[in-house]
TrEMBL record:
CDD domains: DUF820-like (cd06260). GO terms for molecular function: endonuclease activity. InterPro entries: Nuclease_put_TT1808, Restrct_endonuc-II-like, Uma2. This is Uma2 family endonuclease. Keywords: Endonuclease, Hydrolase, Nuclease. It holds the Pfam family Uma2. It comes from Laspinema palackyanum D2a. Residues 23-175 form the Putative restriction endonuclease domain.
Length: 240
């Protein structure tokens, strides 16, 4: 009897104990206001551009838990900006791999700082390549404007070659990334800048104002033509 009891206890001890799935993100505050603005810019642009899609999750400065044990120093990382594809678009406290069908980020950007640059270029790059198998990895320094991107090929990151504008292509997002006014921005495959909601509103207002100006110009030309005809003794209303 004791033997059977010991065997059952042994089997129970081998069953993994999963921590709760609704873990809060434990990421520290971003390094500077410039870092914060960059992350908010990336978030705003992508969420606006994909506003009609419901098959992705995008986050900034959020913890990713990727082990059934909460060893925070080894088994939890917080990419500055990441995107997971083919998942439900909804709010989360953190990204918990075992609660998300084993999905890891498809796309990551690290915003470099003096305290994190070496880790982002080394330890994290190795982790994203060998463990997470994240297909697209980029880093950007908002002060020095250092910018690099990598795509996973045959299990190893290969540097992405820039196009003529110096932009780097993301296979996962099907978008370019490039620097504009010292900020990292997204561009479409046709080369159009992915706008923030505010920029889109400004663009729509500018188009509306231009349309109004064109209507006013047409009215002025019509009035001038009518006046000229009347000076020539021609009744404009009688012209078919």
């Amino acid at each position: 009897m004791n033997g059977e009891t010991n065997m059952v206890q042994s089997q129970i001890s081998e069953i993994p104990i999963f921590p709760p799935g609704d873990l809060w993100s434990e990421e520290p505050p971003v390094e500077s206001y410039r870092h914060l603005k960059q992350l908010l810019l990336l978030l705003a642009c992508l969420e606006r551009f994909w506003k009609n899609r419901q098959d992705f999750f995008v986050a900034a400065n959020m913890s990713v838990y990727y082990s059934t044990r909460q060893r925070k120093s080894e088994e939890m990382r917080g990419p500055d900006f990441f995107v997971v594809l083919n998942t439900e678009r909804r709010e989360r406290k953190s990204w918990v791999i075992w609660e998300e069908e084993g999905k890891y980020p498809n796309f990551i950007i690290e915003v470099l700082s003096d305290s994190t640059a070496n880790t982002d270029r080394g330890l994290k790059k190795q982790l994203y390549q060998d463990v997470w198998r994240t297909p697209d990895y980029f880093w950007f320094d908002p002060y020095s404007l250092e910018f690099q991107g990598f795509h996973l090929m045959n299990g190893e990151y290969q540097a992405i070659q820039p196009n003529d504008q110096g932009w780097l292509w993301s296979e996962q997002l099907q978008l370019y990334l490039g620097i504009v006014e010292e900020k990292l921005r997204f561009f479409t495959s046709e080369g159009e800048l992915v706008l923030t909601p505010e920029e889109e509103a400004d663009t729509e207002r500018a188009r509306a104002q231009e349309a109004i100006a064109q209507v006013d110009a047409e009215r002025q030309r019509s009035a001038l033509l009518r006046q000229k005809l009347q000076e020539l003794g021609i009744n404009p209303d009688e012209i078919a």
